[in-house]
Write a structure and sequence with these properties.
Structural class: alpha/beta
Strand content: 5-15%
Radius of gyration: 26 Å
Number of helices: 28
Number of strands: 22
Largest sheet: 8 strands, parallel
Strand order of the largest sheet: 1-12-11-10-9-8-6-2
Shape: globular
């Protein structure tokens, strides 16, 4: 019985790629240095899978930014603004598309389906020319082969690539990138021909859009694409991989009818209904790559249950046609449990990171051939039993409180218009008030202080003094810049979710459980293993310290329950909404303590609310109902004069705008600049928004500094569709990843632009 891994984490067990990328971007190392680190990481990953006994090992899923951008480079689909003149895509062009440069902005970045991973959105139009411009896939295949490892090259499938693309700037919004299918297939044929010539026997096309609700013409594109590629694919075994959800019946029928395809990969963890489709009919002679080991979470697999599932599938597809696989790429989980020193032995026994999941996959494959490792399976069963019976998991008081919230909708008693009037009388803000989203740059010195405090190398008194000094500097800078509503800069927080999780019960934390979010940006998701409560105030001390340093309003900064949920590894033994309600009640206590401490503006970030939206429309309403309700729970008890902000970023919000309104926040700040102001289109189409709103005026994920004129132009576009008295001026997101040399001029230009437009509006009266 064979085994397969859809994909593997790229950053390395100690984030080696992250540091190599940042060193290269800062000009401290060369392209050769970056490639050396990358080559070593790839070799280590391939060898690890080969040593574990995996038969189908992926290549070309390693990336310096993301796999969709890699495909854009492969196709030579470089937007004109990057002045690319042809030939092999250089790192300079590649990273300019991803991050922008001194003269042009980056391409749009958005969430990869319903994960916290991001991808760079291709910009296409009828005039886009395609050419084979990045030979990464063939180079990595040959690289692995030279090590004696025959891999399965992975490509983003042609149809999913186009369905994930958008019309380029200046192109009619009605333009369908899917119309370019016949234009990109010749490049795919060139890539396939090179891989065949190099000796590849398998090729994997990732077509995850097949799990979405597709129209008939979109499904027809899959049939057309793989029919056109059939002769090129002759002699190769072809795997089409899907993941993250069930494959709808129509999509399943289309996929399993593709004559050029040898094997189908399905997520049988999040796609349990697909299991029924397979059992009701699977094409004879084809392979089923059964994704039974969860690639999205860190819990040890229930090996006995998975084995039963696999045995039932074996009866349908045949023993020699069943391949044990992960549900999706393991890039969405942490790298290796061996690196963990912070987790206690009990919790550690409940977990499996990427390296352990590779072993689980192979153990299941061996068990199917009669080579079951009894001791391994017994240890797995004991760990699962320990988790089910552990008193650390259950808190009856918390469960009762979470059950009780379902009896109310937790709306504030006064409507938002009346609340904004009451808040303005107290805050006395100018029109177009300026603010930032929360964090300020995390300097080397600041990181050193936090690191030494955690290692007990400095005292609590020394740590508190250093953090107070940093807050004071951030407050003074904002006052010098004349920002209206201030933040304390979050110097005490390395990560917004981790910071709160460390102070909530029911959470566990890793030392090295890093997961890539985008580019070099890594996060360390907490592990929610039990019922959640708040033993003590979490942010009140630092918020009140910051407020004491200024007469201007100081925002209390919290992470919302849905974002804490979606950016954590969540327990899988109860519904997600139950856990979310528990977190909401914990945050509610913090909000009320902040208000009691004199904080008049409280921001409850829900950056990941859209991210968690199910991929199937039939499941949207239920998710949005409990997610929006969870947010309202957090602030339903505050006074009308306390202004509640929320923040969202890097997703497509247009289709959930009514749910955003239903959150009933007083002010929302939301990503806008990098997505070509897509958000504003909903207001042009007549959506009425009565609360305060701050669509981001510049992209903080790029080192590029926007001019005052550029920001003013963005604000004026907003004023064309939004009332002056509700518009705020702010960046797209927090500033922690930027340097002060970038932040100061960018914020100066932002404030100057706001002042300029205020003056113009006053003059026009």
């Amino acid at each position: 019985m064979a085994s397969h891994i859809v994909g593997y984490p790229r950053m390395g067990p100690k984030r080696e790629l992250k540091f190599a990328l940042e060193s290269f971007w800062d000009g401290k190392s060369t392209a050769e240095d970056l490639e050396k680190v990358s080559t070593d990481l790839r070799a280590s990953i391939w060898k690890q899978m080969a040593d574990a006994g995996i038969k189908y090992i992926p290549s070309n899923n390693f990336s310096h930014y993301d796999q969709v951008l890699d495909t854009t480079a492969m196709l030579g689909a470089v937007p004109d603004r990057y002045s690319w003149t042809g030939g092999e895509i250089t790192l300079s062009t590649y990273f300019s598309m991803a991050r922008g440069n001194a003269t042009v902005p980056a391409m749009e970045m958005t969430k990869w389906f319903d994960t916290n991973y991001h991808f760079i959105v291709p910009e296409l139009g009828p005039a886009t020319k395609f050419s084979y411009s990045s030979h990464k896939a063939i180079n990595e295949y040959k690289e692995a082969k030279a090590l004696g490892i025959d891999t399965v090259p992975v490509l983003v499938g042609p149809v999913s690539y186009l369905l994930l693309s958008k019309p380029a700037k200046g192109v009619e919004k009605s333009f369908s990138p899917l119309s370019l299918l016949s234009s990109i297939l010749p490049v795919y044929k060139e890539v396939i021909a090179e891989l065949k010539a190099a000796g590849a026997s398998w090729i994997q096309f990732d077509e995850p859009t097949l799990v979405k609700d597709l129209e008939s013409h979109q499904l027809a594109a899959f049939s057309a694409a793989y029919a056109e590629l059939e002769s090129a694919l002759s002699g190769l075994n072809v795997l089409v991989e899907t993941y993250f959800a069930d494959v709808p019946a129509d999509s399943y029928k289309t996929l399993t009818s593709l004559s050029s395809v040898t094997a189908y990969g399905f997520d049988l963890v999040r796609g349990t209904k697909t299991f029924d489709l397979v059992k009701s009919g699977f094409p004879a002679g084809k392979y089923l790559f059964a994704g039974v080991v969860d690639g999205r979470n860190i819990w040890a697999d229930d090996l006995a249950a998975s084995l039963v599932t696999l045995q039932s599938l074996e009866a349908v597809v045949g023993k020699d046609k069943l391949v044990v696989s992960t549900s999706c790429s393991l890039m969405h989980t942490a790298v290796d449990l061996v690196n963990e020193t912070k987790l206690d032995d009990e919790i550690k026994s409940w977990l499996a990171f990427a390296a352990q999941k590779v072993v689980e996959v192979n153990a299941l494959a061996k068990a199917l051939t009669g080579q079951k490792e009894e001791a391994y399976f017994a240890a797995n069963a004991a760990a699962l039993s320990s988790r089910r019976s552990s008193p650390r998991v259950t808190n009856e008081e918390v469960q009762k409180a979470a059950t009780a919230v379902k009896t109310s909708d937790h709306r504030r008693a006064t409507n938002v218009s009346a609340r904004l009037d009451a808040q303005q009388k107290k805050l006395n803000l100018p029109i177009l008030p300026t603010t930032t989203i929360g964090s300020f740059p995390q300097t080397v010195e600041l990181r050193r202080v936090r690191r030494e405090y955690k290692a007990k190398k400095i005292t609590e008194e020394e740590y508190t003094k250093a953090i107070k000094e940093e807050i004071s500097n951030v407050v003074k800078l904002q006052e010098e810049l004349d920002i209206d509503v201030l933040v304390h800069g979050e110097p005490e927080r390395n990560d917004m979710v981790e910071y709160f999780g460390e102070q909530l019960s029911g959470f566990a934390f890793t030392a090295n459980g890093w997961v890539q979010s985008y580019g070099s940006r890594c996060v360390k998701p907490p592990i929610i293993y039990g019922d959640v409560s708040r033993p003590n105030p979490m942010t009140v001390y630092w918020s009140t310290v910051a407020q004491s340093m200024t007469s201007r309003p100081m925002k209390g900064m919290l992470t919302g329950p849905v974002t804490i949920l979606n950016w954590s590894f969540v327990r899988n033994d109860q519904p997600r909404f139950e856990t979310c309600y528990q977190i909401a009640l914990a945050i509610k206590k913090e909000v009320e303590d902040l208000e009691a401490g004199g904080i008049q503006v409280i921001q409850i970030d829900e950056a990941a609310l859209r991210e968690g939206l199910p991929l199937r429309k039939s499941e949207h309403a239920f998710y949005l109902d409990w997610a929006v309700h969870s947010f309202r729970i957090t602030n339903c008890g505050v006074k009308d004069t306390t202004q509640i902000h929320t923040h969202m970023c890097y997703s497509n919000f247009n289709d959930i705008i009514q749910s955003i309104i239903n959150m009933d926040a007083d002010v929302i700040t939301i990503e806008n600049s990098r997505s070509d102001e897509k958000l504003l289109s909903v207001f042009r189409e007549g959506v009425v928004y009565g609360a305060g709103i701050g669509p981001g005026v510049y992209d903080i994920h790029s080192p590029r500094i926007p001019s005052k004129e550029e920001i003013a132009d963005r604000v004026n576009k907003m004023l064309a569709v939004l009332d002056t008295n509700i518009l705020w001026v702010n960046p797209d997101c927090g500033l922690k990843t930027r340097k002060y040399t970038e932040v100061k001029p960018a914020l100066t230009n932002m404030v100057d632009a706001a002042k300029q437009i205020r003056a113009e509006l006053a003059k026009a009266k």
